[in-house]
């Protein structure tokens, strides 16, 4: 209620204070600077302003959890930022509200600092006939491995297949009290996105999908198979207890503290793992598969607001961010891979083993990102969370779970 | 004529100075209030550029939605349970820290026991998540004492989640009650306890026949206030369980937030908000009447 | 009815000693009043008998039992508090019945007792009211009723009348006296009001600074004070206490000389405190038969009259004798002029002499 009230009041206030954006001033709303403490983005903006004296960039930084709300409410009351930091799963939702500017014409220009073909492809895929965002950086979902626990459980190599993963998780869980094979963060606590962190990467590695274009397609054999796999692993004790109350944050912490053998999450987490616990015998591998080399890709994307009064200047800035030289710096600052693959070599220079492994995944495997096509992506993964909780509790079978998610998702999309 | 004008200006001057405050307060209160009610009468807003007026259709949807009723029931459980918890723990601890012990120890206990109040909801939620974790301290102690054999997922089991939430809410909310009662206790004349002692009253008799009746006005006022706060409490629930598992701990405030910012159903969210508003207003009226009677 | 023995009672508050060994022996059925200025330890003594204060030293016994370690309810006492301490949420009936209810007495018996006591105290029409709806005097009666229903061996009163106005206080005083005559319980009664002490007590205990100054019957205390303090404390207006020099024929008071027998064992030139009540100083023109009976003790001196206070049946005559302000009395119909010198007659037969150093009576 408070939120709604605030929004309402902001709306009222905004009607009185229509923004008088000065010519050549653009605003960049993002969460990137919130996850970087050394002032890289301030320097970036300063560098841009030095090269383009007629444009000033105002950096508006919010935590990731707030950005989606802000984009929607700001846009509703006409005070939206010009350049937006975006997350692929939000795409379809934002299109339905009309927040984003189609980027096709901008990408087709000759004087761009990059070639469209060099960009990581996933975010560029057309929805409703247009391209809506470009990648600042990219990272694959991977499986982080505590090699110490793997060896202690009697294995010399991390699991590569589902069968190996099952065996190793059970063995690690059996080691001692408080140690588990793998953590699965299926808490309802916001953002309640456990399924897209762990379930989807496993599903893609199994060759499955949950979308048919922009239509939910959750009720299919591959999904049921993957759900069954999760259930079996849980029943066998391979999964850390309390999945229904485990948050993504706790899951990461538990891995860093050395209490879980494996963690499926974005590759970008490797830097916090190694910096927070240098003692950990750590490596990362591609998510164990059944022979299918597909991975869930994730990244920080950039878009332009449909309501922006300075779209030209906004594109100038986006263009700057995607140039190989700048893009390489941005990727390094985030410890991620560049959105412009031309910058890959620059990033590879001096990169550690875990980053190199991610590059291999990125260059060889099939990237998948489906949530961007989903109407009501956030609502839909909450639904997945709730139904998977019920399945792990033993309240429903994997097949029933798939059916339930599909039904509720369709209802949600109406 | 001029004197009348002068009189009016003189009389009006104080109100003139009050004007900015009144205008700002009025706007801060009435504009959002009006907007929320207005929103609830459209098909959808904010994400809809051209909203359609639908009258009370959203209310109809709401009243026929089992999700709303289950959230309502949860809200009732959570509110009544929390307020009861706050009362029992608050009064009990107030009695304890009002005891005649060394002043230094008393000050120490008083300040320690107020601590849960000063933490933000985020910290409280995070701490309790760790404590209630299957590998957490509480499960460890329960197993060590032999009360449970398997670790329990307090926040992840639909049968336990509401109880765990009530535990967290009780822990978080009792200090206010304790402090209120403590000041209430200090106004109870000592002679009444002495008279009761001579009449043969033990600890519980003194509590029932002297303390409680003396605190009754405080209890009533504080309980109503707590009811109003708890009824629309959002952050603690959202951050502890997010309404889950499933919707086992979904309350009206989290439902509002979910509708608004997860599902972008702002009008439906506004409708729930209005329903919260109506019930809160009823409690508030009760509270104000009680306060007026006390004056 | 119980005997109460208080032996060498001591109270310490930390390092501060509030009571220095109090000994009082109260006979069964006796009405004992503890009186003294505030801070003298009288309330503390009472509360130690009640069990509301711990006993630092000495012994209290009620009946044949030493009660030092017993809780208040085990001591067979009932207490009436200064502020009544009625339970505000309970009706008069329940206020009175509470202790009986706690002792699990059968309901009909409770009802019988409460009604009987209410009848004695004229509280019957008020039984359903709450204390908030009662006048001060009514509350006081309820507080007493609450004590009486328990039929205790001992009643303790802690300044029970100090919150009432003068008129009510007089009434209630009489009522308490009547009650005592009827119930014949042992009573300890604390007050700072010497009139209450005089009118109520069988035995008065005067306390000062945690010690007993004197104890005895009201007559003994009033007419035979042991110390300057007791002499000055009892009586209103208070006894005149003046520092004099002993002369061969009597006393030198300021410039004047009063003829009287020399106090026991003193010689001319020594100093002495002379105490004489206002009743025993009259205008020479106003001599009563009583005072003229033995004129040898009476010596008129002429003094300036400062002020005449009209009390109705009598007048107080304020005058100066040397440096001393003194008070005498005369009949209410006598006319005297303020400001003029007037001969005043001292009935030295009823004067008391005290040693200026020890403040003890010279007998």
Structure described in brief:
Chain A has 414 residues and is an alpha/beta fold. Chain A has helices at residues 2-16, 40-51, 64-76, 91-97, 104-107, 147-152, 162-173, 194-205, 221-235, 248-256, 269-276, 311-322, 324-334, 344-348, 353-364, 377-393, 398-413, and strands spanning 25-30, 56-61, 83-86, 134-135, 137-146, 180-182, 211-212, 215-216, 260-266, 282-285, 294-298, 301-304, 337-338, 366-368. In chain A, strand 1 (25-30), helix 2 and strand 2 form a beta-alpha-beta unit.
Keywords:
heterotrimer, B: 295 residues, mainly alpha, MetI-like fold, C: 363 residues, alpha+beta, Rossmann fold, OB fold (Dihydrolipoamide Acetyltransferase, E2P), six-stranded mixed beta sheet, six-stranded antiparallel beta sheet, 9 helices, elongated
Main sheet summary of chain A:
7 strands, mixed
* Low-confidence residue ranges of chain B: none
The share of residues in helices of chain B is over 70%
Overall 3D shape of chain A: globular
The shape of chain B, in one word, is: flat
CATH class of chain B: Mainly Alpha
Give the proportion of residues in helices of chain A.
40-55%
- Overall average residue pLDDT of chain A: 88
Rounded to the nearest angstrom, the radius of gyration of chain A is: 22 Å
Q: Kindly, what is the distance between the CA atoms of the first and last residues of chain B, rounded to a whole number of angstroms? A: 42 Å
Q: Which range does the strand content of chain B fall in? A: under 5%
Secondary structure: number of strands of chain B: 0
How many strand segments of chain A? 14
Quaternary structure state of the chains depicted: heterotrimer
Spans where pLDDT lies below 50 across 5 or more residues of chain A: 1-22
Fourth CATH level, the homologous superfamily of the largest domain in chain A: Periplasmic binding protein-like II
For this structure, what is the CATH homologous superfamily of chain B?
A: MetI-like
Question: How would you state the average pLDDT of chain B, rounded?
Answer: 89
What letter string, H or E per element, gives the SSE order of chain B? HHHHHHHHHHHH
How far apart the termini of chain A lie comes to 24 Å
Structural class of chain B: mainly alpha
């Amino acid at each position: 209620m408070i939120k709604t009230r605030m929004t309402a009041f902001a709306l009222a206030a905004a009607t009185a204070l229509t923004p008088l954006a000065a010519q050549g001033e653009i605003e960049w709303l993002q969460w990137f600077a919130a996850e970087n403490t050394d002032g890289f983005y301030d320097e970036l903006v300063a560098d841009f302003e030095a090269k383009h004296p007629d444009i000033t960039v105002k950096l508006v930084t919010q935590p990731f959890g707030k950005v989606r709300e802000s984009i929607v409410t700001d846009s509703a009351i006409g005070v939206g930022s010009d350049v937006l930091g975006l997350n692929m799963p939000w795409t379809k939702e934002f299109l339905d509200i009309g927040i984003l500017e189609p980027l096709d014409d901008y990408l087709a220009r000759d004087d761009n600092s990059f070639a469209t073909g060099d960009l990581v492809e996933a975010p560029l895929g057309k929805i409703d006939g247009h391209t809506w965002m470009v990648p600042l950086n990219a990272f694959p979902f991977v499986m982080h491995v505590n090699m110490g626990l793997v060896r202690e459980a009697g294995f010399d190599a991390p699991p590569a297949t589902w069968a190996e993963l099952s065996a190793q998780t059970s063995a690690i869980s059996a080691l001692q009290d408080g140690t588990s094979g793998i953590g699965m963060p299926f808490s309802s606590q916001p953002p309640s996105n456990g399924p897209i962190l762990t379930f989807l990467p496993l599903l893609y590695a199994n060759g499955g999908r949950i979308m048919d274009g922009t239509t939910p397609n959750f009720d299919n054999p591959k999904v049921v198979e993957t759900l069954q796999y999760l259930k079996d692993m849980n029943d066998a004790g391979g999964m850390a207890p309390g999945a229904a109350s485990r948050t993504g944050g706790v899951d990461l912490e538990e891995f860093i503290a050395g209490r879980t053998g494996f963690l499926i999450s974005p590759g970008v987490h490797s830097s916090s793992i190694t910096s927070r616990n240098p003692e950990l015998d750590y490596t990362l591998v591609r998510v164990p598969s059944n022979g299918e080399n597909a991975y869930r890709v994730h990244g920080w994307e950039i878009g332009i607001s449909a309501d922006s009064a300075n779209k030209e200047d906004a594109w100038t800035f986006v263009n700057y961010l995607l140039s190989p030289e700048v893009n390489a710096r941005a990727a390094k600052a985030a410890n991620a891979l560049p959105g412009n693959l031309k910058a890959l070599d620059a990033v590879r220079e001096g990169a550690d083993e875990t980053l190199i492994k991610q590059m291999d995944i990125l260059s060889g495997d099939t990237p998948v990102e489906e949530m961007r096509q989903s109407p009501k992506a956030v609502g839909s993964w909450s639904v997945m969370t709730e139904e998977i909780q019920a399945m792990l509790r033993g309240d429903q079978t994997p097949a029933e779970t798939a059916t339930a998610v599909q039904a509720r998702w369709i209802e949600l999309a109406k | 004529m001029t004197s009348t004008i002068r009189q009016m200006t003189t009389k009006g001057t104080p109100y003139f100075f009050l004007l900015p405050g009144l205008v700002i307060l009025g706007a801060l209160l009435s504009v959002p209030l009006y907007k929320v009610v207005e929103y609830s009468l459209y098909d959808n807003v904010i994400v809809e550029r051209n909203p359609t007026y639908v009258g009370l259709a959203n209310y109809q949807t709401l009243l026929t939605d089992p999700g709303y009723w289950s959230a309502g029931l949860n809200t009732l459980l959570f509110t009544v349970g929390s307020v009861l918890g706050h009362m029992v723990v608050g009064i009990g601890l107030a009695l304890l820290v009002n005891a005649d012990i060394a002043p230094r120890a008393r000050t120490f206990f008083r300040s320690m026991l107020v601590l849960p109040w000063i933490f933000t909801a985020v910290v409280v939620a995070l701490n309790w998540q760790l404590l209630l974790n299957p590998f957490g301290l509480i499960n460890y102690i329960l197993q060590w004492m032999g009360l449970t054999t398997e670790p329990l997922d307090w926040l992840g089991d639909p049968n336990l989640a509401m109880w765990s939430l009530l535990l967290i809410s009780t822990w978080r909310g009792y200090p206010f009650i304790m402090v209120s009662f403590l000041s209430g206790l200090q106004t109870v004349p000592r002679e009444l306890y002495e008279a009761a002692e001579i009449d043969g009253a033990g600890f519980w008799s003194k509590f029932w026949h002297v303390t409680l009746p003396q605190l009754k006005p405080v209890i009533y006022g504080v309980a109503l206030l707590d009811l109003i706060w708890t009824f629309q409490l959002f952050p603690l629930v959202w951050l502890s369980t997010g309404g889950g598992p499933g919707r086992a701990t979904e309350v009206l405030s989290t439902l509002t937030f979910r509708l608004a910012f997860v599902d972008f159903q702002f009008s439906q969210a506004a409708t729930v908000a209005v329903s919260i508003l109506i019930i809160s207003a009823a409690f508030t009226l009760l509270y104000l009447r009680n306060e007026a009677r006390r004056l | 009815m119980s005997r109460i023995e208080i032996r060498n009672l001591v109270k310490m508050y930390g390092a501060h000693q509030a009571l220095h060994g109090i000994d009082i022996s109260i006979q069964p059925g006796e009405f004992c009043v503890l009186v003294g200025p505030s801070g003298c330890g009288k309330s503390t003594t009472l509360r130690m008998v009640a069990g509301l204060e711990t006993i630092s030293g000495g012994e209290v016994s009620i009946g044949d039992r030493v009660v030092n370690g017993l809780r208040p309810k085990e001591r067979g006492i009932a207490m009436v508090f200064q502020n009544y301490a009625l339970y505000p949420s309970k009706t008069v009936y329940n206020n009175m019945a509470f202790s009986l209810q706690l002792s699990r007495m059968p309901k009909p018996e409770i009802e019988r007792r409460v009604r009987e006591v209410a009848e004695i105290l004229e509280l019957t029409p008020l039984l359903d009211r709450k204390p908030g709806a009662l006048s001060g005097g009514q509350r006081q009666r309820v507080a007493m009723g609450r004590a009486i229903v328990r039929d205790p061996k001992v009643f303790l009163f802690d300044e029970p009348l100090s919150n009432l106005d003068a008129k009510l206080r007089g009434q209630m005083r009489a009522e308490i006296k009547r009650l005592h005559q009827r119930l014949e319980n042992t009573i300890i009664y604390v007050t700072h009001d010497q009139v209450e002490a005089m009118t109520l007590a069988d035995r008065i205990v005067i306390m000062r600074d945690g010690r007993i100054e004197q104890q005895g019957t009201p007559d003994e205390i009033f007419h035979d004070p042991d110390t300057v303090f007791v002499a000055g404390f009892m009586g209103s207006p208070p006894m005149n206490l003046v520092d004099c020099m002993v002369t061969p024929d009597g006393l030198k008071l300021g410039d004047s000389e009063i003829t009287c027998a020399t106090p026991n064992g003193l010689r001319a030139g020594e100093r002495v405190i002379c105490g004489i009540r206002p009743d025993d100083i009259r205008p020479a023109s106003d001599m009563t038969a009583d005072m003229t009976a033995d004129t040898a003790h009476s010596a008129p001196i002429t003094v300036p009259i400062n002020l005449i206070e009209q009390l109705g049946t009598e007048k107080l005559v304020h005058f100066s004798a040397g440096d001393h302000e003194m008070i005498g009395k005369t009949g209410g119909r006598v006319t005297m002029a303020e400001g003029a010198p007037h001969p005043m007659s001292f009935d030295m037969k009823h004067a008391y002499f005290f040693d200026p150093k020890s403040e003890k009576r010279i007998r």
